[in-house]
Specification:
This protein is α/β, with parallel strands linked by helices. It has 8 helices and 30 strands. A hairpin with a 2-residue loop joins strand 26 and strand 27. Bound molecules: adenosine monophosphate and magnesium ion.
Length: 440
């Protein structure tokens, strides 16, 4: 069941939920989303894109019984007793086809074979060259082999026509290898969802401006744009919204013309935090207006119905191009303005929505584990995602909190490479304990 609050007047009544409930609410809403538009791109341009077609095996994989070792193709029964001497009757290199009758293995015979070459007829194993000595036209074999050893039978990896990569899968290098191996030089992928990014705040100025003494540059629009891109979307950075209803509303309406709207700032309890009020005026539904997490507690998730968009002023219609085929709802996130909170809440909540809009099949959020290097003490009540540094080497990963000044400290976040996830009921976690990590 999907819970929602109606916003009949303006500001929604608060609905603060646990992290897990918040995440599941987002996932439930994401299930109903999909991307319809597709495009065909060159294979390498498909890296990081989401497949709109399944990739099928165009033939058996491997297409022949493929040797996995350099050595001799033999009949295992001939090596029941070792050492044994076999007559070498030929050689097959990778890329050569051993014509049956011309290059095949009769009883008492062997054929020299290289890794990647097809197994000659009647051979049923490959003995590694390391276990043999070539003497004139014979080979002495010191080790026996079992049938099937050191080659992969034709079709063992996949049969012709078998699905190798699902539609909805994001192409990584392994996916690229599969597409290449079946001869797909071009692949069909989903159009990237357009994600509007609106930063709010009277103190926020564009990054090429010289900030006044009480002003700060708009870093959030850029970190969010980078995260959007990373999640498979196309960021549309809109103007900075001042803490003033009219302009904020116009920018929200413009943003709702995209596939998803991300706002930062203006969702806390301050007198000039107007985002929820303005969304309320637009008849938004709010699924949550806070999550029991730190950083990022004031995060907001909701949607506006297509009806609300009909009132988009004429000058904004152009950027609302997705409207024609638009789903009934346009989703939005109000992310807190503190830069670290913005980044964390994006990863936890906005990312799965963008992935769904990009056509990706649902990805579960899983945390990795590492040993804690030094003790952590926190207050209970919130699930914490604290910037941390994962270090150590090989099997000995260890993690410790980055020293930071709170959720405005982007310098600390840039030094960190992960977040330690602290359950809401833990006051103290001792050095050496296993803790959960969210990589970034
Ligand atoms: P708010 O969520 O609007 O109360 O903002 C919380 C903190 O984040 C304040 O210190 C803001 O100045 C800062 N902040 C808000 N928006 C941005 C932004 N776009 N870039 C960098 N910092 C911001
Ligand atoms: Mg603000």
């Amino acid at each position: 069941m999907i819970l929602a609050m109606s916003a009949s007047s303006s500001a929604p009544s608060a609905r603060v939920v646990s992290f897990e409930v918040a995440r599941h609410l987002v996932e439930q809403h994401a299930v109903g989303l999909c991307s319809r538009d597709v495009e065909t791109v060159d294979l390498l341009a498909g890296l990081g894109r989401v497949l709109a077609e399944g990739i099928l095996a165009d033939r058996d994989f491997p297409p022949f019984d493929r040797a996995t070792r350099d050595g001799y193709a033999v009949r295992a029964a001939d090596l029941a007793e070792v050492p044994a001497r076999l007559e070498v009757v030929g050689e097959v290199k990778a890329g050569e086809w051993p014509e049956p009758g011309v290059c095949s293995v009769e009883r008492g015979q062997a054929v020299g074979i290289m890794t990647g070459a097809p197994l000659p007829a009647w051979a049923d194993a490959v003995v590694m060259v390391e276990h043999t000595s070539l003497i004139a036209k014979s080979v002495d074999v010191r080790c026996s082999v079992t049938r099937g050893e050191n080659f992969v039978p034709r079709g063992a990896e996949a049969r012709a026509g078998q699905l190798l990569l699902d539609r909805g899968r994001r192409l990584d290098h392994a996916g690229i290898a599969i597409a290449a191996s079946v001869g797909k030089s071009r692949v069909q992928v989903f159009r990237k969802p357009r994600v509007a990014v609106v930063s709010t705040g009277d103190e926020v100025v564009e990054i090429d401006a010289t900030p006044g003494p009480a002003q700060i540059r708009n870093s959030n629009s850029y970190s969010l744009a980078a995260q959007v891109q990373n999640a498979g979307g196309e960021a549309v950075r809109l103007a900075i919204a001042p803490d003033e209803r009219g302009r904020l509303r116009a920018l929200i309406e413009e943003g709702l013309g995209c596939d998803l709207l991300l706002l930062t700032g203006g969702v806390s309890m301050g007198k000039y935090d107007l985002v929820e009020q303005v969304l309320g005026e637009l008849k938004a539904e709010f699924y949550f207006t806070g999550a029991e997490i730190q950083p990022g507690r004031p995060v907001v998730f909701g949607s506006c119905s297509a009806g609300a968009l009909a009132r988009v002023p004429a000058e904004n219609k152009q950027s609302a191009r997705a409207e024609v085929s638009a789903p009934q709802k346009k989703y939005f996130f109000g992310l807190p303005g503190n830069p670290v909170s913005t980044m964390v809440t994006f990863e936890l909540f906005a990312r799965p929505m963008i992935e769904a809009l990009a056509g990706m099949t649902r990805q579960r959020l899983v945390f990795l584990r590492a040993r804690l290097k030094s003790e952590i003490r926190t207050k209970t009540g919130l699930k914490r995602f604290l910037p941390a540094v994962l270090s150590g080497e090989f099997e000995n990963a260890e993690v410790e909190l980055a020293r930071w000044q709170g959720s405005g400290d982007i310098a600390a976040l840039a030094r960190a490479n992960c977040y330690v996830v602290i359950p809401p009921d833990r006051e103290r976690i001792g050095a050496g304990e296993w803790v959960s990590l969210l990589m970034r």
